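Subject: two folds for Thursday's group meeting

Dear M.,

Sorry for the delay on this. The cluster queue was jammed most of the week, so I only got both jobs back this morning. I'm pasting them in the order they finished. Each block is the input sequence followed by the predicted C-alpha cells. Could you check whether the formatting survives your parser before we put anything on slides? The first protein is the one we discussed after the seminar.
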Amino acid sequence: MKRPGTAICPSERNSQPYPFAGRRNQQRFFIRHPAFFPSPLNHPLETNPRSVLTFRLLPVPYDMAARRRLHPPPGAELSRSHPRWVMLDRFVHYKAYAGEAVAEEVMDGTQSAISSTCTNISIAVSLRVAEPPAVSRLYLHWPERFMTASLSQVSQPFIIAAHGRSILFQAQAPFVGDSCPAFYYYPMDYFLYTASDSEKSPCLMRLPPCFDGGDKNPDVDLYFHPYRLQQLRSMWRDDIGLLCRGKGEFVVAQLTFGGQLCVLHHKPGEEQGDMNWSVENMPLPDGDDIPNLLCGSWQTDAVVPYGDCYLCWADCYLGLLFVGVIDKRTKPPCYVPLPDGLDSNRLCVDPGYPDPARRVCVSESSMINLICVGDYAGCSVCASSYSAFTITVWTLTNLREKKWMKCFTMEDSKFWAALDFDKRLPHVLPEFPTISLVKPDVVYFRLNGGNKLFWLIEIDMKKEVLGSTSLYIFEEEEEEKCSIDMAHWRSFPGYSFVPSPFTRYLDQHAIRSLEHSEKLQNIRLEQAKEKRFVEE
C-alpha cells in the first residue's frame, strides 16, 4: 500500500514507492487532471478552460526530518490513518492542570502552544479525535484552582465555527484575585486554534476585543475594571462566521439583523497587536422577495464560508445572504431565496435554539447544501408531531442565477428500512442533519433514544443504506471519575455539530486519541446495556 506523502511513477507501479523528501534521482513525470475551479458567482456550472493542473517532480535537498516523519524510528508509537475530517461537538471540555503553568502532558500532538486569557490565566487546548459519526471534542486546559467555584459561574466554552486548519471558540474568563459580584461581569474571550504547517504545536491566538458599539455606563464600570466587559461589543455566537485563506490570513465577522457588519481581518505577516475590528453599516439588498432584515424577522441558523471572499449567513426559512468580507463593500450582499415549495414557517421560534429539521452546510469543494426533514407539503416536522416525512438534500448550483438542484430524496419507509440493519437503533424522527465534508451523498443525523441516549448515524442518501453508528458522548463523560448519575449532567439541546478538516493538517503521528475515543464509546454502550436502554 502506498504510504502518505509518497508518489509512484506510472512506469514503475510495481516497484517500491519513493518518498518526495530525500529523492535524488532526476526522473520527472507529469500528472494532468481536469479540475473545477470554483467561481463565487458561477460555481460550479462553468468550467475554467485553463483548469488543467500540471505537476513536475524536481530534485530537492535531502530532508532528514521529513524522512523521519515518513519512516519513524523502530519502537515509535504509530497512530492510525488520519480521519480526513471530524465532527466537532460545540461544547468544550475543561481539563484541569496543577500549578501555575500548563504542563506538556497531553496524550498527543494536538496540544496547542500556551496562550492566556485577558485576565492572565495560562491556558492551552487539545483535541480528542474520533471518526465520524462519533463527535470529536476540544479540551480547554485550565488551572486546577479555577475548576470549582469559578467555573460553576461561567458559561460553557463553545465552538463557534471552523474552516480550513482553524477552529474558532469562545470562553468566559474569571477574574484573577478579584472579588466579583456576579458571573455576568466576567469578560468573554475569543480564540483561534490553528494547526501548524510543520511539526510545531498548533497555535492558539486570542483575538483582540471589540469596543465599538459597546455599552458605557459610568455607574457600573467599576465592576468591570480592568477588563472593561461593560464596554465590549455584544456579539451573539450564532451571528459570527470564520473565513480562512492562504497562510495565516483569516476573517472573523459578525452580522447583526439590523445590517451592521463587524469584521476582524488578519493579513499574513501582521502582528497580533496590530489587529483591529472595523464596524460598518452594510447596504442591504432590495427587492420584493427579500425579507426585511431591519424588522427582526431574520434569524441566523448557520454561517458558512463560500469561496475565498464570502461568508454566507443562512436563515433556513428565509434564505441565504452572501457577503464579501475581504474587499471594501460597495455593493449590497447577494440574497438567494430557498428552493420553491419549502414552507417559511419556522419550527422553533425561540431565538438561539437550534432548528432540528433544516441545516445549511458547505462541502470542501465550496458546494452549498440545504438538508430538510419535512412533510410532503414542504413544512418542517418535529419529533412530537409527525406521521410521515421526507428527507431532501438541495444543492445551490449557481449563485448568480440563484438556482437550486434537488439531489436526493428519501422517504420515511426507506429510512426505517435502513435503520432495521441495526436493531439497537430507535425508530424516531431523524434530527439535526449534517452533510459529510468529503462525501456529499452522506448525511449524519441524531436519533433521540430517550434516557439521555443519543445515537449518531450515517445515511448514504444515494444508496439509501445505513453506514456507521455511534453514541453521543456527553461532556461530563470525558473524565474518568464521571458520575454515573445522569440526572446531574448538562442537557443536550441538540446543537448541530461543526464539520472541520483540522486533522488533515496535523503530522501523521500527532493524533493518539482514537483509541481513547473508542474506549469512551464502549463504556457508554455498556452502561446503556446495564440499564437496558439498549438491546443486546
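Second protein, same layout:
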Amino acid sequence: MVSHNDAEQSRCRTSDETPTERVETTASEEFAPDRTRAITGRSGSKGVDRRRFLQATTGTAAVFAGIPGTAAGWRSQASYSTSDRTISSFDGTDLATTLYTPDAGGPNPAILMTHGWGENRRLASMTASIAAGYAENGYVVLAYDSRGAYGSDGISAVNGPNEVADARHLIDWLAGRSDVETDGQNDPKLGMDGISYAAGLQPLVAVADDRVNAIVPRIGWYDLTYSFVPNGVVKDSWLTFLLAAGVFQTLDFDPGTRVADRIFEWYHDAIDTNRLPTDAEEGLEQRSLASHIDRFDTPTLLIQGWDDTLFNPNEYLRAFHELQARDVESAIVFYEGGHAIEEILVSPDDRAYLNDLAVTWMDKHLRGESTDVPTVSTYLKQRDEWRTGSQFPPADVSMTAYSLENATERGNPHIERWSWFHDTEVTYEWHVGRDIEVVGTPEFDLAVDVAGPEARLFFDIRHDGSDLDAIGKSVGEAARVDGPGRQRVQFEFPVFQRFFSAGDTLSLRISTESLLFEESTHTDGVTVLPSQSEIRLPQRPQ
C-alpha cells in the first residue's frame, strides 16, 4: 500500500483481497473509426447539425474535463492509502477500481462511488477529490469505472439492470473486508456519493438494496424523460454531446461493444423523428427515481446547480418535495454550478460548504453522530452568501400573476422560425414596482394560435434585459404545441432565486429558435395571444 501523495499505485495483493479481484490495469483498446457515423448521424436519414454540436459541447464540457478547485473543502486532512485493483462483477465482467483506505485504525464505514458520464474514477477531478475527501475523514472508499467505461469491461446500458447489479456486487465485496464497519453479516455501513451519471445510479441501487444507508447525489436527475424531452421537445445538443462522450469513454469504437446498441437506436430515432420513441421513454422511466419513488426510503442529500442546462433545478426540487411528502429524511442544496460553465467558477469556500454538508450527512447516517444538515441550503448569487431554511420555497412566498396584456410588447406577437417577413422572437417587459425576491418555481399559462401542424417554443426570463443577467441560459424552458388553431401552453419554468429592485425590468422572451433543443420542422408560425396569457412568479417583499 502507498500513501495518497506518492506517484506509484500499489501492485501487490493484500490480505483482504478476494479470489474475484486482481490488482492490475486493464489495457487500453484501439480506436476504430466506424462508430463515428453513429455519432454524426451521417449514415442515417438526418445528420446532426455540427454548429449545434459544438455549441452544446464548448460551454458545458468543463464538467466532464475536470474542475479546478474541487479538492478543497474537507474538514479533516487525515492520511490514507490507495490501491488499484480489478474486481470481477456478478457476471464475470471486470471492473477497474481504486480503494482508498484511511491510515488510522478501523473498521470504518464505506463510501461507494462511480463517476460522471464520459469520465472515469481517476481522471475526473470531482470524483477523485470527493473520494479522497471521504478517505481523509476516515471512510473506506471504493471508486470504480462504470461498466463499459475506460478500465472496466462490459457494455454500458446507461444505468441499466447490470449497472445496478455491479454496485450491489461491490457492496458485497466491501462487506467482506475486515477494515469496513458492518451492521451485520454481509451488511456494511455504507453510503454513496457522486455526480451526474453517478448521481442517477444511487437511488436505483438504494431501491434494489437496503444496505445503502445514505446517498448524496449531485447534479443528477429525477425523471430522465423530462431531462431529455421537457414538455415534448427533444434536447438534441445535450443528447449528441452525451452520446459522443459515452463513445469516447469506452476507448472502443466498435458498435458491437461497450455502449449498448439500443442507446444509439434511441438517439437516432429521437433526432430523426423529433420525438422520443416509446421504447426509449420506457427505458428512461426505468432509470429514473420518479418511477420508483413509492419504494424509496433512503436518507438523501440532494445537491443541485442553479445553472444546470442538462438537469435543471426542477429535477431535484421535485424529488425533494416527493421525499418530504413521504417522510423520507432528505435535504436539498442549490449552488451556483451544474452542467454549465459556471461549474468552473465555484469558489473553494463554496466547495468546502458542499463537501462539509456531504460528510456531515454521512457522519449522521453511517456513524450515528448527533450532527445535522439544514433541510434547505440556498446560494444567493447576487449577495454571494448562503441561506438556510426548513422548506423551499419559504413559507411567506406567494404566486403573483404577470399578464402579458399589461406588459410592454417588444416585437410582433406573430413569430416564425423561417420567414422573410416575421421575427423569430417576441419579448414582454414589466417594470418592477417594489423590491421583491423571486424564489421558487414559476408557472406559465399562455394562449397561442398555431398556424401549422405543431410548433416548438422556447422561453427565457431575464432581469434588466441583459444576457449576462439571464436567469437561465439562452433558453430556460421549451414546450411543444400541437396545432393548428388556438392552444394553451401550460408548464413549470425552472426554479430560480433572484432579487429585483423597484424600477428594474423583468422580461419574458418567447422564441421559435434554440441552440439546445430540436426546433420545429413543420411550423407556419405562432401568434401569442397576450390578453389570454400570464406567467405567475413565486415572490415575496424584500
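Two things I noticed about the second structure. Residues 1-15, 24-72, 252-257 have pLDDT under 50 and may be disordered. The first strand starts at residue 2 and ends at 3.

Cheers,
T.
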